[in-house]
Amino acid sequence: VSHGSLNIKYIRICCLVCVPDRPKLTDSYTEDTWMKLRDAVSAIQNSTSIKYNLEELYQAVENLCSYKVSPLLYKQLRQVCEDHVQAQILHHTESLDNLSFLKKMNRCWQDHCRQTIMIRSIFLFLDRTYVLQNSLLPSIWDTGLELFRTHIISDGAVQSRTVEGILEQIERERNGETVERSLLRSLLGMLSDLQVYKDSFEQRFLMETNRLYAAEGQRFMQDRDVPEYLHHVAQRLEEENDRVISYLDQSTQKPLIATVEKQLLEEHMSAILQKGLRILLDENRVCELTLLYELFSKVKGGLTALLQAWREYIKSFGAEIVSSPERDKEMVQELLDFKDKMDHVMQRCFQRNDSFINAMKEAFESFINKRPNKPAELIAKYVDSKLRAGNKEATEEELERILDKIMIIFRFIHGKDVFEAFYKKDLAKRLLVGKSASVDAEKSMLSKLKHECGAAFTSKLEGMFKDMELSKDIMIQFKQVCYMQNQSDPSNIELTVNILTMGYWPSYTPMDVHLPTEMVKLQEVFKLFYLGKHSGRKLQWQPTLGHAVLKTEFKEGKKELQVSLFQTLVLLMFNETEEFSMEEIRTATGIEDDELKRTLQSLACGKARVLNKTPRGKDVEDGDSFQFNSDFRHKLFRIKINQIQMKETVEEQVSTTERVFQDRQYHIDAAVVRIMKMRKTLSHNLLVSELYNQLKFPVRPADLKKRIESLIDRDYMERDKENPNQYHYVA
């Protein structure tokens, strides 16, 4: 070695081993040595002190093995151990209680293991040479186990009492008593080491477990409510898992838990769902619903049963909301709340399981269409209430969230054409009467509808917005022209006109009312201006949704009244005199009876009573007379009385519904002709099937048959002369 570097070519290691002189093998030596070893084994078995040094005993075994007497030594050792084990069985026939017997058996087992280890340490040379070279011979440790299994644990009485005692201790623990888990762990480890655990204990244990939980399941299902029962099942499963960790063999876990789940869950799935699911969902018991999902996911068919019950609950609860006419006012809000609740359960309890999400969608779609058309109409009205000016319930962000939720409900509806008709009617009122809360919100809703139903669905709605924007531009030009021409009779009326494309807007019944001369003159001025710019067009004035702001003087002072055009015509009459009869007002204004009664009721019987009615009352009759209420008081300067225009009349509702049905007939006719033109000849069943695929609204087979008959009458198609169920297209 130099400078820290190591250069080694060869290493020679010489080991000097000192081996004591071996005694010569004689019969006398062999006998004496064996006696010495037997005495040592007996001392170990009887737990007394050994007279000889352990190293000396080990050397003696090595000497005997070296002289080729290993077979005899192995045989003699086995016989000594067997004699001792056989003697132990007599000590286990004493009359003891089960716990004392288990403790005695455990001591016997622990002593046997300790003794076998000690004996093996002395005869280690024999174990590692002769026994190792003979594969058919069990090792000294295995021999000890075999002897204990054969002469003690295989004894019918001993095994029976051991297993019975262990089962008794486990049952006591299941009943809430405290037991010595270390004792059970040691004894069950003994059975496992002796390879009799499955045959002697596990089968009996699982049978007893099955019997116990079968009875417990029946009793608890009758006596306890479902939430309590679910917590009990979870507790039992936790206890059994803890037993496996504490003292049972690991191989027992799977069949044990399966047994508990079968008797406490699988056998009672229907009863649990029938008795408790509705309560849990009604009361929004998130904790118990989560537990229910977790438990049912453990048993075969559990989630399928829960899925079906969940679907039926949604259908049943939803049908109660939709099918009750007395709940129509709150229907949409209840549907939104119900959907929120189910979504919450889905996310928190059912782990956003795709099957449950799809089942929920299917259930909503099923029950919401049980009552045709009405939910679609009410959803449109609900949207109207949220988008109407004066709705101070929500900020813009909250309104956007509400609209998103409404669109989720909207997707479930089959008759979307009903929604479109009522939505269009309400949108028209909001735009024309100036009652829209926000143009951004309106366009956001329009964008959502377009994304959901396509451009064709919203084309007319978009046209309505375009008309309003074009009308603003036209009015700017009109006012500029009026200013430039410097009208000789400028009038004190400021006119605003909305030009509506007839195909975009709902159809309004024309009503010929008697307008004041000033208004008629202004109409003519605008008509000349507009037709001068757009020759060939025709203007039709619609007074139904007209509105005005009147400057009025009361004793309290000046006020501004925001009123409908019909209210305006009535109030302007009181510039002439202070009292008019119903008949006089009807004659002067030309307003139809029903509309006039509504108008007078809003002025004389509402919150802002600018007219007094004689006799007093909530309803307007033909013989009533009306006086201007000069004593009218109100805290606001501008008072809105034209809310009546936003309210839907029965006639409007009926008219809108009839228009939808009429449009549906046109769609059916067009679809039939389109199909027949392409296919030329088709059977009735195939034609109906094709129609169901093409039509986007619900329709009954009887209605389809009527439309087919109508087309046959009008020579668009004809029946086959030989087969009445066959149709031919007529070119």
Structural overview:
By secondary structure, this protein is mainly alpha-helical. The chain is elongated and about 155 Å long. It has a 3-stranded mixed beta sheet. It has helices at residues 27-45, 54-66, 70-88, 98-122, 124-128, 130-133, 140-153, 156-174, 181-193, 197-223, 226-246, 253-264, 269-282, 286-296, 302-322, 331-348, 354-368, 374-387, 396-411, 416-432, 439-453, 455-485, 517-533, 565-573, 582-589, 593-604, 650-679, 684-694, 701-713, and strands at residues 547-554, 557-564, 579-581, 611-614, 625-628, 638-640, 681-683, 717-719, 726-729. The relative contact order is 0.03. The chain contains 29 helices and 9 strands. α13 packs antiparallel against α14 (286-296). The model is unreliable at 1-20 (pLDDT under 50). The chain starts with 26 loop residues before the first helix and ends with a strand. Helices cover 63% and strands 5% of the residues.
Span of the ends, CA to CA: 115 Å
What is the number of E strands?
A: 9
Q: Which radius of gyration do the C-alpha atoms yield?
A: 49 Å
| Low-pLDDT runs | 1-20
Give the percentage of residues in beta strands. 5-15%
Major beta sheet summary = 3 strands, mixed
Principal-axis shape: elongated
| Strand neighbour order, sheet with most strands | 1-2-6
Helix content: 55-70%
Specify the number of helices. 29
Structural class based on helices, strands and sheet pairing: mainly alpha
| Mean pLDDT score | 85
Give keywords:
731 residues, mainly alpha, 9 strands, elongated, disordered N terminus, biological rhythms, host-virus interaction, ubiquitin protein ligase binding, ubl conjugation, phosphoprotein
